[in-house]
Amino acid sequence: MKIILENLTKQFTGGAYGVKDVNLEMKDGEFVALLGPSGCGKTTTLLMIAGIYRPTSGSIKFDEKIMNRVLPKHRHIGMVFQSYALYPHMTVFENISYPLKLKKLSKTDCTARVQKVATMMQIDQLLKRKPGQLSGGQQQRVALCRALVKEPEVLLFDEPLSNLDAKLRMRMRIDIKRLQMELGITSVYVTHDQVEAMTMANRIAVMKQGGLQAYDTPDALYDHPKTLFVAEFIGSPQMNFLPVTFGQRNDSFSIQGEGLDLDIPQKIGSLASRNKAPTDLLMGIRPEDVSIDASGQVSAEIYMVEPLGREDLVTLNISERIQIQALVPTNIKVTIGKRVTLRLNLDKLHLFDPSTEYSVL
Fold it and tell me: Engineering a disulfide at 207: which of 36, 131, 229, 347 sits with its beta carbon 3.0 to 4.6 angstroms away?
């Protein structure tokens, strides 16, 4: 099932916009994440796709059919919520089969369908238990089975893993993605967790204040962010941002800032120049593209060291006001207060116009 959102807008009583002019096309069988901070409009968008909210304007299409006025029960969707929404007095079997009973399916068909999805999610041995006897991860599997048992054409997830601990979240990420790939069901997944979005989705829609900031593959958003917000939001540890002055000297392009004076690659400088980049820019570079190297370009003093296991996240002062972070392998000894030289991988440089917050590359 293909999902198309055209100029989708939701305005609430009082005039506030939950979502404004969102345009998205989700391909049949695709896994799309709606990613952004709290209040950005991602859940409002999901609830409009589900039919729980009606759009103020714009349209929602499933394939070529406009769904704006179609009731949720007629949309052939399955939905999984952050709260498991299980009936505590019912067994696992009864919770999963409840949507089928509403459809008045025969007992034989109900049993067969429940057994199929329960086996798929590896909870077939739990069918006689009640939710209070299950772990959080098991309850979420039951909720997923209840969505799948209807044999939906679209699966909608609203922060389904937020209540689980880190280990269970990782396990459920793998299981949900594997299941979606096997079944080929078009899936829309709301999350504020960029790790979930990056690891699970074919494409990610990054949202901010009700609008769409970017819509692309995880790799494209990471390697070529088009806005400052996307660059900040995608990637952990967060990208470094440093104020610089962009210019040309002799036959090359350069950037200068506090503690910085760098000749940048010709292809980056030429592209910024063609795009009429202003003189004052924000330079972005990820911590993994900053290394300690005696033959590097930037002098800095180590301010803080945060061990991460196989590497350390090192914060360094390159001036009294400007800091930069680097991911440093643990075999390189780093000591607070020590002066070192940093090498910046300038092929991975990002440049943003601080006034528009758009990339100039």
Answer: 36
3-state DSSP call for residue 317? Answer: strand
CA dist 64 and 314 (Å) reads 52
pLDDT at residue 104, rounded to an integer: 87
In the chain, where the domains are located: 3-233, 240-352
Q: Is the pLDDT of residue 251 over 90?
A: no
What are residue 341's DSSP bridge partners? Answer: 299
d(CA 348, CA 339): 24
Quote the CA–CA distance of 232 and 254 in Å, as a whole number: 23
The correct answer on CATH 3.40.50.720 for the domain covering 240-352 is no
Computed from CA positions of residues 316, 318, 323, 325, in that sequence, does the dihedral angle turn out positive or negative? negative
Summarised one tens digit per residue, pLDDT across range 114-146 is 999 999 999 999 999 999 999 999 999 999 999
Q: Which SS3 state, helix, strand or coil, does residue 287 take?
A: helix
Provide mean pLDDT across the span 80-103.
92
pTM: 0.93
What is the CB neighbour count within 10 angstroms for residue 36? 28
E-strand ranges in 76-222 read 77-80, 154-158, 186-191, 203-208, 211-216
Pick the CATH number of 3-233 from 3.40.50.300, 3.20.20.70, 3.40.50.10860, 3.50.50.60: 3.40.50.300
Looking at the chain, which runs of residues are DSSP E strands? 3-11, 17-26, 31-35, 57-62, 65-66, 77-80, 154-158, 186-191, 203-208, 211-216, 240-249, 252-257, 260-264, 280-285, 290-292, 298-307, 311-317, 323-329, 339-344, 350-352
